[in-house]
Write a structure and sequence with these properties.
Layout: H1 4-7, H2 12-24, H3 26-38, E1 58-67, E2 81-90, E3 99-101, H4 105-113, E4 131-136, E5 147-153, H5 164-172, E6 176-180, E7 188-190, E8 196-198, H6 201-208, H7 212-240, E9 249-259, H8 261-272, E10 276-282, H9 300-304, E11 310-314, H10 324-332, E12 337-341, H11 353-364, H12 368-375, H13 380-395, H14 397-400
Helix pairs in contact: 2-6, 3-4, 5-13, 7-8, 11-12
Amino acid sequence: MPTRRTALLTTAAAALALAAPAHAAVNDRATRALKTHREPGSRRIRLALPAPTGNHPVGTVSLHLVDRARRDPWLPDRPHRELMVDVRYPARTVHGHPRAPQMRRGAADGFAALNNLADVPADRVDWAATLTHAYERAPLDSGVRSLPVVLYSPGVLDPRTYGTTTADDLASRGFLVVMVDHTYDATAVEFPGGRVEHSRLPDELEGTGGAEEQVRALLRKTLAVRVADLRFVLDALPSALPPLVRRAGDLARVGAYGQSAGGFAAMQLMHDDQRVRCAANLDGVLAHVQDDKQPGHFSSVAVDGVDRPYLLLGKEGNSPDTVPSWGALVRNSSGPGRVKEVRGAAHGSFTDSQVLIPQVARELGLSADVVEALVGRIAPERSVAVQQAALAGLFGRLRTNGTS
């Protein structure tokens, strides 16, 4: 049966709530994961991601961005806020360019030590071995002009690359996708030179003592930091994009999407920043609560609504009728919206877990209950196809100026 830890995966608050018990075992799990990596006789399974469905091969480049106008909100003694982002784009050719890993070794070890995958043995998966379908520094397809820019924000604790399936697919369809890591929120962020910064959220949550108002304040802070990160990335892109892709990105046509807390952040970003012309929320509650169905404590995006196109994709049981903050958004919005409840889906169905967890289960003999708790009953192929079509439909408006 699903554990309480699994059941808590439904919202950003839930992910924070699970971080505390997980944190107690972080050092032990990290040690075991690293030990397994070093033992030549040990075997860790390797996983594969599905190929994108668009007409273009995909290139990628990583950027280290420094916000010198902002102290790091999680470590105030740090005078600047540092972020890592990946930029995905349609490539002309990928010949001679290596496929990018989903996670580099330092980030992968951090993910193995602290993640949202209850009942999955962290030391049995080689997370650094998974390859994306994006090729490092492949040349831009020069026949593609003025690419719409789409920001991606992952769920709490998740690295930016845990949304690779949707990001690579959008890039293959002719979008410039910017995947953002939220440092000290994500399990681990690896910077140039191999420096790795780990999540501060378990310690932050422990510091609340579980008091409801303090937890709520931590949720507000988490969202505010994420939105500030995304706005900074938008500010930085004109000069930060390498010459390889700088002229291709059209920052007059920007969309945003994310899963869980990332979906919340994408919607709040559109509310706060007129540069964002449409946004998609993949199963993220829009209130500072610890359960999707808890009323009240709405964010300003739920209270005010939005006047631009939006998409809400929810797991089975999540809809405007059952999630109060979604109902408020729909009632208060004047912009066109689409809402879809994905039957058979779970909260993790809107991350790369949807395709990776079934592979892990087959290799390690995990029970059907473990798989269902993490990614529901929906077939991975169906889950991926639903999201690809919905996101392509929403962001296709950026090409046609159909944003009202």
